Amino acid sequence: MSQKFDVIVVGAGPGGYVAAIRAAQLGLKTACVEKWVDDKGAAVLGGTCLNVGCIPSKALLESTHQFHKAQHADVHGIQTGDVSMDVKAMVARKNKIVGNLTGGIGGLFKANGVTVLQGMGKLLANKQVEVTAADGTAAVYDAENVILASGSVPVNIPPAPLTDGLILDNAGALDIDEIPERLGVIGAGVIGLEMGSVWARLGTKVTVLEAMDDFLAAADKDVARDAAKLFKKQNLDIQLGARVTGTEIVDGKEVKVKFTDSKGEQEITVDKLIVAVGRKPQTNGLLSEDSGVQLDERGFIFVDEQCRTGAPGVYAIGDSVRGPMLAHKASEEGIMVADIIAGHKAQMNYDVIPSIIYTHPELAWVGKTEQELKADGVKIKVGKFPFAASGRAMAADDTDGFVKMIACEETDRILGVHMVGGIASELIAQAAIAMEFCSSAEDLQLTVFAHPTVSEAVHEAALAVDGHAIHIANRKKR
């Protein structure tokens, strides 16, 4: 007789491990299936985010940002002399952080009583889960409820097949341990811009090839426009409308990249090439034909607003379902689903999910863009405040960017907030909290913000919505 659980979670990424911990906290007998193993055969928890995504990339970004600050410390009167980067030490630090966090999840599982089932998980009929270990042995487990949290994998493109050490995906890009003289990046999305920034700060000539004609099409146009100017100053050569047609390895040492743009056929040669054209759901082999769970034509699992699949008692969360592929979205879906399984009322507000790109300055937004609202025929009012007018930002020598707030002209409700700035990733939480509570611009206008802080830019942007900003000249209303 197979072992039975109240909840089996398939996948230990930021959606799966959070769902498992929450379910266990709510008194449910819980297991979590994970196929990743380390060189000793032990399960590796944390998924893409902790191992080869969010966390390691931020470690590298922080290291290179500190390097850049040290190079320019003379603005504060600090004389550092020649500054150099030990790339191998930088990568080792990144690996240590990853190890600490993934090991920490194991500790949390143990503390909460979550059972780890090591192997490849597959949903069978009647809420059974087959787990196949690395040695090929398989076991079947019964569950009252199953949460599918299989995550996503990088999209590979035929013109640029991955080649060890030369043509890399996001995982390979994190392990470059020497500063390349020339780096090519295919894709000007989150991964492409973040990885491009890491190496540009260390002196690499970075060329980003983006097939779309619009830069950061999903962002508010003010954010995209300002970011494009700032990246250009940082020596990121972003070429739009550049469609890669082929690659060639030259002498086993460099990559010749062929692409077409408005000028016709083009070619560049780089020492490393990162393919960062997006991700797709990791649902291959996840479901038996009689599981009762349906996929769409792109491999995403069909779910309702509360992440229920077509099979009773089976849920799916994170990158394998509709919505943005964001770790925090996956985590909150995991909590929602665990609460529902435990019999609690739970829902998630998909209209208030922050998006962030961790370059410097950072790009962050929540809610709708000005362009989306105008296309929907919504009458809006807009307030904008530059960090160049912030005393705290001046003191930090970090005055690039702005906060932009959009409110409904009729109700004053905040509909979107968009930022470019040094700590935009932290400030955007203020906007998300306000929007979650259906705040008006006036609510933030009447809120006391500490001085001097960069948060005051959020306050001033709210004031600017009605032409009442204090520390900039307000636009005259027509």
TrEMBL record:
Cofactor(s) the protein requires to work: FAD
Chief location category: cytoplasm
Catalysed reactions, as listed in the record: N(6)-[(R)-dihydrolipoyl]-L-lysyl-[protein] + NAD(+) = N(6)-[(R)-lipoyl]-L-lysyl-[protein] + NADH + H(+)
Active-site residues from the entry: 451 (proton acceptor)
UniProt signal peptide: none
A Gene Ontology cellular-component term: cytoplasm
Disulfide pattern: 49-54
Domain FAD/NAD(P)-binding: start-end pairs: 5-334
Record text on cofactor binding: Binds 1 FAD per subunit.
Keyword line: Cytoplasm, Disulfide bond, FAD, Flavoprotein, NAD, Nucleotide-binding, Oxidoreductase, Redox-active center
Binding-site residues for FAD, renumbered to this chain: 58, 121, 319, 325-328
Residues bound to NAD(+): 187-194, 210, 278
EC number: 1.8.1.4
Annotated Pfam families: Pyr_redox_2, Pyr_redox_dim
InterPro entries, alphabetized: Class-I_Pyr_Nuc-Dis_Oxidored (IPR050151), FAD/NAD-bd_sf (IPR036188), FAD/NAD-binding_dom (IPR023753), FAD/NAD-linked_Rdtase_dimer_sf (IPR016156), Lipoamide_DH (IPR006258), Pyr_nuc-diS_OxRdtase (IPR001100), Pyr_nucl-diS_OxRdtase_dimer (IPR004099), Pyr_OxRdtase_I_AS (IPR012999)
Statement: the UniProt record of this protein carries the keyword RNA-binding: no
Span of domain Pyridine nucleotide-disulphide oxidoreductase dimerisation: 353-462
Protein's UniProt keywords contain Nucleotidyltransferase: no
Subcellular location: Cytoplasm
GO biological process, one term: 2-oxoglutarate metabolic process
GO molecular function: dihydrolipoyl dehydrogenase (NADH) activity; flavin adenine dinucleotide binding
Other known facts: The active site is a redox-active disulfide bond.
Family of this protein: Belongs to the class-I pyridine nucleotide-disulfide oxidoreductase family.
UniProt-listed PANTHER family: DIHYDROLIPOYL DEHYDROGENASE, DISULFIDE OXIDOREDUCTASE
Protein name, UniProt field: Dihydrolipoyl dehydrogenase
Originating species: Pontibacterium sinense
Taxonomic lineage from the root: Bacteria, Pseudomonadati, Pseudomonadota, Gammaproteobacteria, Oceanospirillales
